[in-house]
Amino acid sequence: MHEHETSDTSTSLKSLVDAYERQLIQSALTAAAGNQRRAAAALGLLPTTLHEKMKRLGLLRRPAPRPEQLAS
User: Fold this and answer.
1) Nearest C-alpha neighbor of 39 from the set 52, 54, 50, 49
2) CA 27, 19, 54: angle at the middle one, nearest 5?
3) 20 to 30 A from 51, CA-CA: which of 12, 31, 45, 58?
4) Are 54 and 29 in contact (CB under 8 A)?
5) Could you tell me the domains of the chain?
6) DSSP sequence for 5-64
7) Measured between alpha carbons, how far is residue 44 from residues 24, 34, 50, 58 in Å?
8) CA nearest 43: which of 27, 59, 55, 56?
9) How far apart are CA 7 and CA 39, in angstroms?
10) pLDDT tens column, 19-45
11) What is the pTM of this model?
């Protein structure tokens, strides 16, 4: 197989790597009580890199709406 060909193996590898990365990030965030800067430091990443990884992996949560936002 040539490097430029895509196979089920490469797709599976990407999904496995993404799942593992997601697990590591979630564990770091839990250990850091949700503090992204501390989680990034624990993972050896810049906070911006962690944010981009979280965005790519679907780990960013929208903040809960404030009561005044619900009234409008």
Assistant:
1) 50
2) 65
3) 12
4) no
5) 10-59 (1.10.10.60)
6) ---HHHHHHHHHHHHHHHHHHHHHHHHTTT-HHHHHHHHT--HHHHHHHHHHTT---PPP
7) 12, 16, 9, 20
8) 27
9) 34
10) 999 999 999 999 999 999 999 999 999
11) 0.71
